[in-house]
Every structure is written in structure tokens, then in C-alpha cells.
Design brief:
mainly beta, 15-stranded mixed β-sheet, 43 strands, disordered C terminus
Length: 391
């Protein structure tokens, strides 16, 4: 089927349905950019739109922009949207951006990005609908930059993504619905303000690169989710899950990277650091490192606790690597290497180390449960009684 090449710029939506599902190329230097106010966030608010019929194919080497708002001032518009299945390729020089979403494939297909895709980065943007790439059952191969005011990528059920470069979101870098999957390659980066990646029940993430959260969780796991890490994950809590049974396989580095400072009535602060991994219930095989965060060294500090390597409420643990609590400072407690509740069944053939501090952290502290040790469990050195190996 012969295709169409767009060689002239415009300020109105390009409706692919009007020409049928023939391949369309947006030539280098061409821009299709919408601006102003629109009555509704519909097909006319997308720079390029393919209807429910499907079969759409677009190669973009230019600029597709939908910088529009509703009469209320709320952000609207999608750079490229397919209501039916299709394929979209954004070239090295390509830019796709929308005030609400950068690119949306709602009914399957595939996306290849070598340029820049942005959603919800402009004026009037609020809420969680500001997404770089939204996929409903489609696949994404990202070799460029994807960024969103709320989410970098949002993967619907059965959607999949492979990130080889950068995905970033103001709230979360990537959000995976049930059945979605994401692979983050070595050297690739996923970052988010509150969470690096959020996995719903049944979602899976294979990480060989870097996943970071500026605020809370590097990776947030729901029950039934699966995480395999061979790279690095960091956040206030590196990996966190509050309910359900997840699976974590770690051959890389997971660390907590923040401390919460609470003012005291007297001079100074009480600092509490996040855990590298904190899960209610899970199956864990660790052959890498889980490192709790250190408490900041501060002469004004009065109290506090460094981060634990692993906090696990229930489930099974096989540790062949290192679980380590963070180090404390003046008048602080070193972090626990392992804190386990009554339903924990653990086996250690690696290292479990408490963190140093004025009060040394225990290597392992169990509130019931069991831990079979064939490795080493060490409490930390301290000014006052050293931390116990385990208790």
C-alpha cells in the first residue's frame, strides 16, 4: 500500500481516518502543532489522530504538538493518538508532545521511540492523566526520552515495554497494570518523583539498569507482582509493598536513599532512614546487596535510626548475598540487617550485618519466625552496647 508524506506544516489536527489506513510519514522540519482552547478533549485535540478502524502506521521525523486547554484552563490534547491498533515510530529528530498525553495507543500495536515524547509538561496540567506514553495492550521500545508530568509510561493489561534510554515522570516513571511487563536494560534509567516504578498485581519488571525515586519508593510492589533486579534500585525505601505476596529476585543493588528529619523540642533533629526493602509478604532470593540508608552525620542530631537492609513481615527468604543496616551517627541507632515477623521462614548463606551507631544495630531481629544460618550474622560496633548478632 502506497503511503503519504506530509511535507507542509499545519495548525489543525491531521485525521488519518479521512485518508484510510495508509502509512503516513511526517517529514523532517514539518510541524503539526495545535494551540488555544478546545471545547472537548477529543480527536480534534490531537495533532495526529487515527480512529477505531485500526491499521494505522505513522513515522514521525518532525514535531507533533497539542498544546491546547479546555475552557476551564485544564490541560488537554495528545500529540499522537490511535483509537484502533497501529504502529508509530518517532525518529531521532522527532518530537511528540501533548498537554495531556504525548502518545496514546489504546487498542494494541507497537511504538518505537528514538526521539522525544512528552505528556503533561505544559501549562494547566494537573492530576494523573499527564502521561508521556499510554498503552492499552500495545508494546513500546524506547531508545530516546519519554517524560510525563505525572507518569512517564502507563502500561495497560498485557502491554509491554523495553527501555534502553530514559523514562521519567513527575509522580512515577512507569505504572504497570495487571499483566503488564517492563524490561529496563543495562545503562537505561527510570525515575519518578514519588516512585520509580509501580507494579500492580500480576505485573512484572526486569531491571538491569537504574530505577530511582526522588521521594518515596524506588519500586512499589502489589501482591502477585514480580521483580527481578540485576541493576540498581533506590528511593526512601528501595522496594516497598504493603499487602499481598510478591516475588523479588535480587542479583544487583537495592538501597534506601533518604532520611526523614523530625524537629525535636530541644536543639536538633531526629532522623529516620528508609529501608532498602520493606515488604509485608514475599518470596525473596537475594544474591546481591540490600543496603539500608545511613543517618546524615550532623552535630546537632539528638536521636534517630538508620535504615534496615530488609524488613519482611511474612514469606520466605534465601539470602546468598548481603543484607546490611545503615550507619548511624551521634546518639543514633544503627540499622538492622534483617527485621522479620512471625511468619518469616529464612535461610542465610551470605552476610547479614547490623549498622554502626552510638547504639549498634543488630544483624537480625526476629519477632517469631525462623532463620537457618549457614553464613554470617554480625552486630555492629557501637559506643554503647554493641548490636547483637541476632535475637
Amino acid at each position: 500500500m502506497s503511503g503519504t508524506t506530509i511535507t507542509s506544516s499545519g495548525t489543525s489536527a491531521l485525521l488519518l481516518a479521512a485518508a484510510g489506513p495508509a502509512p503516513v510519514t511526517i517529514a523532517t522540519g514539518v510541524s503539526i502543532v495545535l494551540s488555544g482552547s478546545v471545547a472537548a478533549d477529543n480527536s480534534l485535540a490531537s495533532a495526529v489522530y487515527g480512529g477505531p478502524g485500526g491499521g494505522w502506521s505513522v513515522l514521525n521525523e518532525g514535531t507533533l504538538g497539542a498544546g491546547v486547554t479546555l475552557a476551564s484552563g485544564m490541560a488537554a490534547g495528545t500529540g499522537l493518538e490511535f483509537a484502533g491498533a497501529g504502529s508509530a515510530t518517532n525518529g531521532l529528530a522527532g518530537v511528540i508532545e501533548g498537554n495531556a498525553e504525548g502518545l496514546a495507543l489504546l487498542a494494541g500495536g507497537n511504538v518505537v521511540n528514538r526521539g522525544t515524547i512528552s505528556g503533561g509538561m505544559g501549562a494547566g496540567g494537573t492530576g494523573l492523566g499527564r502521561i508521556g506514553v499510554q498503552l492499552g495492550g500495545a508494546t513500546l521500545q524506547n531508545n530516546g526520552l519519554v517524560q510525563g508530568g505525572a507518569y512517564g509510561v502507563s502500561l495497560g493489561a498485557a502491554a509491554g515495554a523495553a527501555n534502553n534510554d530514559m523514562i521519567t515522570g513527575g509522580e512515577a516513571g512507569a505504572v504497570l497494570a495487571t499483566g503488564a511487563s517492563l524490561a529496563n536494560a543495562a545503562g537505561a534509567v527510570i525515575t519518578g518523583g514519588a516512585a520509580g516504578a509501580v507494579l500492580r498485581a500480576g505485573a512484572s519488571l526486569a531491571n538491569a539498569g537504574s530505577i530511582e525515586a526522588a521521594g518515596h519508593q524506588g519500586v512499589l510492589l502489589a501482591g502477585g507482582a514480580y521483580l527481578a533486579n540485576r541493576g540498581s534500585i533506590s528511593g526512601f525505601d528501595g522496594v516497598w509493598g504493603a499487602s499481598g505476596t510478591a516475588t523479588l529476585m535480587n542479583d544487583g543493588w537495592i538501597s534506601s536513599g533518604g532520611s526523614l528529619g523530625l524537629p525535636l523540642t530541644s536543639t536538633g533533629y531526629s532522623f529516620f532512614s528508609g529501608a532498602a526493602v520493606e515488604l509485608t509478604s514475599t518470596t525473596i532470593i537475594n544474591q546481591g546487596v540490600m543496603q539500608g540508608n545511613n543517618v546524615p552525620p550532623d552535630a546537632l542530631m539528638q536521636a534517630g535510626s538508620a535504615g534496615s537492609g530488609l524488613v519482611l513481615g511474612a514469606g520466605t527468604l534465601m539470602n546468598l548475598g548481603t543484607l546490611a543496616g545503615g550507619g548511624g551517627a551521634y546518639a543514633t541507632h544503627g540499622g538492622l540487617g534483617l527485621a522479620g515477623a512471625a511468619q518469616l521462614a529464612g535461610y542465610n548463606a551470605g552476610r547479614i550485618d547490623g549498622g554502626s551507631g552510638t547504639y549498634g544495630g543488630a544483624g537480625a531481629m526476629l519477632f517469631g519466625g525462623s532463620l537457618l544460618n549457614a553464613g554470617s550474622i554480625l552486630g555492629a560496633m557501637a559506643l554503647f552496647p554493641a548490636g547483637m548478632g541476632w535475637c
